[in-house]
UniProtKB/TrEMBL annotation:
CDD domains: crotonase-like. The keyword Lyase applies. This is Enoyl-CoA hydratase/isomerase family protein. InterPro entries: ClpP/crotonase-like_dom_sf, Enoyl-CoA_hyd/isom_CS, Enoyl-CoA_hydra/iso, Enoyl-CoA_hydra_C. PROSITE patterns: ENOYL_COA_HYDRATASE (PS00166).
Length: 257
């Protein structure tokens, strides 16, 4: 991939995707197309077990590049195409078959916070914060996701005012796994990624799928769905190997079958 706004590295089963559009990693059409391409590609790569998503410089992402907005409404169909691209870049992260760890290295605003909320696991540096500041530029978007993670009062306060929420407050609320000095952020995120990469790739894929699919299911259907996954996994060589290794007190060797 010839990437202009992202950097991608893959080593030992872990992909690191870095938003890299200085000075503030604002998301334009090019970056969103690249996010979609990269996450769709990583989703299909057997050699990738987990993904860490972070930002270059001192910000995770300042959100949408507002310079793309002024002329959209004047062109028939332009806003529809723009919104579709925004949605698909978000859902490329959400629907990726590999667990995504957001390493929030600084401010994650608007669509930047959207990418965090589309990730599976969040960790943050001590100077990071999140907000949905669209109201400050006369726009309104994102409450769908805010209300998934925050109480009604906090979500709506954030939405109506653009309120910033610090990494320390995110940790107090249990939304991030850790609030760390900047130098410790990536090692911590990579440690989680390595732990995931040590598991059966088939089991991790179905675990990610179940975590996403069961969100909208009634509890009885969701539990039955997960039980179906367990039955399917019990027939795989990886599950048999995991159970042998458990009883033999050794590290399992997975083949992805």
């Amino acid at each position: 991939m010839d990437l202009k706004t992202l950097t991608l590295t893959i080593e030992d089963g872990i992909a690191v995707v870095t938003l890299n559009r200085p000075p503030v990693n604002a998301q334009n059409a090019e970056m969103r197309a690249e996010i979609t391409e990269v996450f769709d590609t990583l989703s299909d790569m057997d050699e990738v077990a987990a993904i860490v998503l972070t930002g270059s410089g001192k910000l995770f992402s300042a959100g949408a590049d507002i310079r793309e907005r002024p002329n959209l409404a004047a062109t028939p169909g332009a806003y529809g195409r723009h919104n579709r691209l925004v949605r698909e870049s978000y859902y490329a992260v959400v629907e990726c078959s590999k667990p995504v760890i957001a390493a929030i290295n600084g401010a994650a605003l608007g669509a930047g916070f959207g990418l965090v909320m589309g990730s599976d696991i969040w960790v943050a540096s001590e100077d990071a914060y999140v907000s949905m500041p669209e109201i400050n530029v006369g726009l309104a978007g994102g409450v769908t996701f805010l209300q998934k993670f925050f109480s009604q009062s906090r979500a709506r306060r954030m939405f109506y005012t653009g309120m910033q929420v610090s990494a320390q407050e995110l940790y107090r609320l249990g939304l991030v796994e850790a609030c760390l000095p900047a130098a410790e952020l990536m090692p911590y995120a990579m440690g989680i990624a390595r732990e995931i990469a040590s598991k059966s790739p088939i089991a991790v894929r179905l675990a990610k799928e179940a975590a996403r699919m069961t969100l909208t299911m009634p509890p009885r259907d969701a539990y039955r769905y997960e039980q179906g996954n367990t039955v399917a996994l019990s027939k795989t060589e990886d599950t048999k190997e995991a159970q042998r290794a458990f009883f033999e007190k050794r590290k399992p060797v997975f083949t992805g079958r």
